[in-house]
Amino acid sequence: MPKTLELNRRHLMMGAGLAATAFAATGAQAYAETSSAAPDLSGKSILITGCSSGFGRLGAEHYARLGAKVFATMRNLPRPEADELKALAASDGLDITVIEIDVTSDAEVEAGVAEALAAAGGSIDVLVNNAGIAFAGPIEVQDMAATQLIFDTNVFGPQRMIRAMLPAMRAAGRGQVFNITSQLGRVIVPGYAHYSPTKFALEALSEQLAYETVTQGIEVTIIEPGGYPTEIWENQVALSATLKARTPEALLAAYPQMTASMGVDNGGGGGSTDPMDIPRNIAEIIAMPAGTRPLRRAVHPVSRPQEPINEVSARQQIAMLGGSSYGPMVKAVLD
Fold first, then answer.
1. In 10 A of CB 170, how many CB atoms?
2. Beta carbons within 8 Å of 225's beta carbon, 6+ residues apart
3. Rounded to an integer, what distance in angstroms lies between the CA atom of residue 293 and that of residue 200?
4. Integer Cα distance of 281 and 109 in angstroms
5. CB-based contact 299:36 (threshold 8 Å)
6. Is 228 a known active-site residue?
7. How much is the pLDDT for 267?
8. ω before 78 within 30° of 0 (cis)?
């Protein structure tokens, strides 16, 4: 065992990078080819959660510049990030509407989605569940307040949005749901709290939803980023510091290697990777013909250790259910 275990954002940059080394050399070229296009999204309406920063903020601008009508949602309005996005939309002629939604609030989700649907004429083509948080530290250190907060944001938040958005999509007979998970939704780094548990849960929720809605014209894609330098990791430092401050010293001492750097910003967080990889990949998938979109896409220029897991999982799902009454829906999603 190593003498120290630095629990910083570099863990998420690397993920299980060593597992990806065997196929990274050949996979990098394919990745570049699939993420470089700039499709026309004219006529598409897109609602995104968590647009104050990171993938959500970048995506809101990117999709609008490609012609989409964008509903950029964020919590705690008014706030400078919202004002900045509104000013950009006005100056550059982008169709971006900022709406307040805290995904942990039933009332805000209901009201925000209703506002967006009214502005969009009753239906929205694409939902991007992007809002998310992270903590550091071992599982035992995660008290119920931290546990409830991360599950409420990373799992129950997407569920709230899905339940609010699907009736209109179903009525229109079409729609796309993107749930942003992580490579850590398929592989696990010890000492990163409930981040992997929530992302594993969102992976399962997404795949089940894909089977259940495929016959209704609603498609689901799981975006699995590797490490990227976004604000989620700065926010994680603050959340972890607060958790550490209320944790008994005896419990912190039980896991010294995993708790020493809780609340400490040690840098890292994706190195020179480009967070625009995520919006570019999402835009490309939106532009694909219906029925051809993938269930999962791993996104990172080098480290994609989840890809072999995804392949095995798909084969086993078909092997288990392909000949059953569930076979047509499973094959429609996975084949």
1. 15
2. 55, 180, 182, 183, 277, 278, 299, 300
3. 21
4. 26
5. no
6. no
7. 67
8. yes
pLDDT of residue 272: 81
Contacts of 265 (CB under 8 A, 6+ apart): 8, 234, 237
CA 87/CA 317 separation, integer angstroms: 47
pTM (2 decimals)? 0.89
List 31, 192, 195, 228, catalytic entry: 195
- Residue 328: CB atoms within 10 A of its CB come to 14
Place of tokens 């999709």: 63
**CA angle, corner 74, sides to 54 and 158, nearest 5?**
85
Mean pLDDT by 10 residues, the chain (335 residues): 34 34 34 61 98 97 98 98 98 98 98 98 97 97 98 98 98 98 97 97 98 98 95 93 98 97 78 92 97 97 96 98 97 95
- Rounded CA-CA distance 196/16 in Å is 13
Please tell me the predicted confidence (pLDDT) of residue 270: 64
User: How many whole angstroms separate alpha carbon 274 and alpha carbon 292?
Assistant: 26
Give the homologous superfamily in CATH for domain 10-334. Answer: NAD(P)-binding Rossmann-like Domain (3.40.50.720)
How do the domains of the chain map onto residue ranges?
10-334
